[in-house]
Specification:
Four copies of one chain form a homotetramer. Chain A is built from two helices and two strands. Chain A is mainly alpha-helical. In chain A, a hairpin with a 2-residue loop joins strand 1 and strand 2. The first copy, chain A, binds a DNA duplex (16 and 16 nucleotides) through helix 2.
Chain lengths: ~100, ~100, ~100, ~100
DNA sequence: ACCGTGGTTAGCTTTC
DNA sequence: GAAAGCTAACCACGGT
């Protein structure tokens, strides 16, 4: 233990460097991550609500999910095919 | 194929009721879901970026993830305890 | 603890019920799993070898991998579409 | 596009050299890879089935997975120790 | 209320 | 050693 600065332990609110890591910067990162995670969860909740609403108006949720998956696969396929073309070009030295 | 109404097949853009389901409403739901899913993915990407940035400045990502999990657990625990307290208060007519 | 049989601890080779679980049966499951895992790993190694061989004869591995992925996606898409049809039928009570 | 040979496009079934790559050989590689991949997947499915079966007879899957991991680590450790021993033996001319 | 399925996340391997 | 792709573990939803 080689910290010259005081507070190991209950220095609540006033984090500092401990063992060479900046508590302040770390905390900032964690806060940003948590903020974004909350927003992400909010989106997920919204999606759930939509499914619930659709179900309430008579749609079959399972089918809807499958449709979403299929449309996503279509989009991915298109993207991959474009990548493949580029890759071919690179592979035969045509880039 | 026994539909009296027009467009089965290539009625691109003009979906209608098929077998009692409104293609229009269904499509609207799917669009909303996909829109939100994209935004959600955007959040996820942002989070990933933050981890990458933190890593680049010397932090250990695995440890950071652990911290996030711990803080989340703490937050949940606190929330549950508060809920319990409220419940007790209600139970003894102290709300 | 209600074990009538003796040996908790070093009964090496002669596992028995401990805490109500049959050591013998458990061990049999684990053995089967490990056996299959080894075979699976063997397949993975074989695949790796093929890529290496292809590369040695001048093919671009990255492109090959993408082709494999695309073909797989095609197959999955077809399968999912069939499932979707079945799902539609079920959803409108036509199963 | 500078191919002198015929079939670009819809030469289904009769792949040939395109841009210097042998479509035939490429296809053979892809087929072998896909074949092995399927078998590999089969193994994975079998493993899954075993876990399911074990679960049905009352075992805790999560714990079982832990055991598998532990046994694997043990096996690897033993192997490494043996390798180390062999290395030492070689180093002192005792092989 | 539980189970099974499907989606998300994290860890590992492999590639460049 | 970084970046990506793969795989496996975890979690949450929907159905029964």
């Amino acid at each position: 233990m080689t910290e010259e600065t005081a507070g190991i332990g209950h220095n609540s609110g006033e984090e500092q460097d401990v063992g060479g890591v900046s508590g302040k910067r770390l905390k900032a990162y964690l806060d940003r991550i948590e903020r974004l995670t909350e927003e992400k969860q909010g989106m997920a909740d919204d999606i759930k609500d939509i499914y619930a609403e659709a179900k309430a108006t008579g749609f079959d949720v399972k089918t809807m999910r499958k449709l979403v998956r299929l449309r996503k696969m279509d989009a991915e396929k298109r993207r991959e095919e474009e990548e493949l073309l580029a890759l071919y070009q690179a592979a035969i030295g045509l880039d």
